[in-house]
Structure formats: structure tokens, C-alpha cells
UniProtKB/TrEMBL annotation:
Lineage top rank: taxon: Bacteria
Keywords annotated in UniProt: DNA-binding, Repressor, Transcription, Transcription regulation
Chain ranges of the HTH lacI-type domain: 2-56
Protein name: Ribose operon repressor
SMART domains documented for this protein: HTH_LACI
UniProt organism field: Vibrio brasiliensis LMG 20546
């Protein structure tokens, strides 16, 4: 592998001159710069990213941790992170925690040892836990996405799940529904709890009764939605509509309903949450709450860069607002 000394010898200049040309750290005449660049090209010289990072104490690399899921929501957020990193001249190292707390801690340690400039965490399994390693790296900025209370300093990017749950239930009410069920995510998770709270707020505001048989806790996966609907079906007569707290579970609900000959939306109206890309291609296309996934990823990168390049100090919470997307799974019965 060619070095600066090799370039200097071929170009007939000093090593320091080569350094100034390549790093653009001092003015060098056009003639000498051309000789140096031609020599570097002939020798197929590639600057050492590691050496440069040690010199400037910056690797231009961001680490991101996510939990594996069949839900394409995560992939759509990662796409926003990756594209924003690329546009800002940063590399992204992506780690999958598989939902394992120990693996997550090991991944964080590995990324910090690789001298990443900042971390983005999208792993709700550690909600409310302390991560001691961050105390050893106080200068590494951390951005958390979609978590509840945290025991370490970080910026936080999230959607307004309370508002989103409220919008979903209110839309069903405005469509004439008074019997409204809810299939929630795991209520130990902050965002799942907030969507459920929004649902309850809308029903309370409208003076509607709650039926415990129509409220089922599930797991944010297709299988969870499928099983939750079967539990609801076995308990009692069905409501006229269900707020399903993410699109993946809504797919499972629609599949289970179809198996029982229940037509969507003629017999049962469904509204989901997230607006994943495939929601509009379902049959019927899914009415849902749009979560700005690309903007969530972009905002996470911007929050890191505010600390890295602009010297921001105070931790911030960036909350993006959800919106309603009307499609074909809610019947207006007014």
C-alpha cells in the first residue's frame, strides 16, 4: 500500500508538502499540487481513514442499534437515518440486538470501542434501565427513538402516540361507531401505553362505555394481532370497529376476520397505526395513523449533528405529530 513517503519520492517533494496537498491544510502552488495528485493517482494512494480520525478525533461514523422485528416500520426509519448520514458525509454502522439486553450492551461497547462519533438507539427493551457504559463516555452524544423514561442523558425523538391514539378513536367515533375495541401493543412499553391512553381519552370525551372484552393486549406483530382477534371473537359479540395499535397487528386481525367470514369494513371497521409502506396495498387498503418514519430517522441524525458540529449541550425532545390516512377499512355508519 502506497504511503505519503512514496508519493513524495515520486513527485520530488517533501512528505510535509504531500500532507498539505492531500489534507488541504496549507496553500501549495498549482504546479506542485498537480505533481503530488498525479503521483498519488499513479500509486493508487488511498488516505487512511483511521489515521485521519486519530488526528482530528472524529471518525465521521454513527452507530445505530435496532431490535429485530418483522415490522417494516423499523426498516423505513433506518432508511431515513442512513440517507441522512450519507447526505451529511457520515457512515452508519447498524447493529441488531435481537431483543436481547446483554447483546445490546455488548453492541454498545463494540461501537464505542470503534470510536463512533454518536449513537442512535431504537431498542425499547431497555426502557427505564441504566446503561453504565455511557458514564464512561460522557462526550459521546446519544439519541433515543421511541422510548419512555430513561436513566441516562440523551436526546429523544418520538411521535406523539397519545395524539395518534386519540386521532384513531376519534375518527371511528366521527364515522358513527359507538362500539370501539382496541388491540394494544405491550403496555409496559411507553408508546403502546400512550396510544391506548389516546384511545381512552377519545371514548371518554364522547361519553362511550368501555367493554373489557373488546380490549386485548398483544405484541405489535402480525401473529399477535391474529391471536388477539381470536381471543376477542371468543369472548363476546364483536364491536363494530377496532383500533389496532400498529399496522402489523392490523394485518393479523384482517386475516383472522377473513377466516371467519367477517367482511372488512362491511361487518367490522379497522384502523391501524404507523402507515407502513404496504398498508396502502392491502386488500382492502388500510385506514391508519401515519407516523413520519423517514423524518424520525432524519431528526435523529440532525440531533446528533447539533451536538457534534454545533456544540449543543442541553438534551432535547423532538416530537413529531401523527396524521390520519383515510383508506378503505373504516365504514361510515352515520
Amino acid at each position: 500500500m502506497a504511503t505519503m513517503k512514496d508519493i513524495a519520492k515520486l513527485a520530488g517533494v517533501s512528505t510535509s508538502t504531500v500532507s498539505h496537498v492531500i489534507n488541504k491544510s496549507r496553500f501549495v502552488s498549482e504546479e506542485i499540487s498537480l505533481r503530488v495528485n498525479n503521483a498519488a493517482q499513479q500509486l493508487n494512494y488511498r488516505p487512511s481513514a483511521l489515521a485521519r480520525s486519530l488526528k482530528v478525533n472524529r471518525t465521521k461514523t454513527i452507530g445505530m442499534l435496532v431490535t429485530t422485528s418483522t415490522n417494516p416500520f423499523f426498516g423505513e426509519v433506518v432508511k431515513g437515518v442512513e440517507r441522512s448520514c450519507y447526505q451529511q458525509g457520515y457512515n452508519l454502522i447498524l447493529c441488531n440486538t435481537e431483543g436481547d439486553n446483554e447483546r445490546m450492551r455488548e453492541s454498545i461497547n463494540t461501537l464505542l470501542q470503534k470510536r463512533v462519533d454518536g449513537l442512535i438507539l431504537m431498542c425499547s427493551s431497555l426502557e427505564g434501565e441504566r446503561i453504565d457504559v455511557f458514564e464512561q463516555y460522557p462526550d459521546i452524544p446519544v439519541v433515543v427513538m421511541d422510548w419512555g423514561p430513561m436513566l441516562f442523558t440523551s436526546d429523544k425523538i418520538q411521535d406523539n402516540s397519545l395524539r395518534g391514539g386519540y386521532l384513531a378513536a376519534k375518527y371511528l367515533i366521527e364515522s358513527g361507531h359507538q362500539q370501539i375495541g382496541c388491540i394494544t401493543g405491550p403496555l409496559v412499553k411507553h408508546q403502546a401505553q400512550m396510544r391506548y391512553e389516546g384511545y381512552k381519552r377519545a371514548l371518554n370525551e364522547a361519553g362511550l362505555d368501555f367493554n373489557a372484552n373488546w380490549i386485548i393486549e398483544a405484541d405489535f406483530e402480525c401473529e399477535g394481532g391474529y391471536e388477539a382477534f381470536n381471543k376477542m371473537f371468543a369472548k363476546d359479540s364483536l364491536p363494530s370497529s377496532i383500533f389496532v395499535c400498529n399496522d402489523m397487528m392490523a394485518m393479523g386481525v384482517i386475516n383472522a376476520a377473513n377466516e371467519k367470514g367477517i367482511r372488512i369494513p362491511q361487518d367490522l371497521s379497522i384502523i391501524g397505526y404507523d402507515d407502513i409502506h404496504i398498508a396502502k396495498f392491502m386488500s382492502p387498503s388500510l385506514t391508519t395513523i401515519h407516523q413520519p418514519k423517514y423524518r424520525l430517522g432524519k431528526a435523529a441524525v440532525e440531533a446528533l449533528l447539533n451536538r457534534l458540529e454545533k456544540g449543543a449541550i442541553d438534551a432535547q425532545v423532538v416530537q413529531l405529530e401523527p396524521t390520519l390516512v383515510e383508506r378503505s377499512t373504516v365504514l361510515n355508519i352515520k
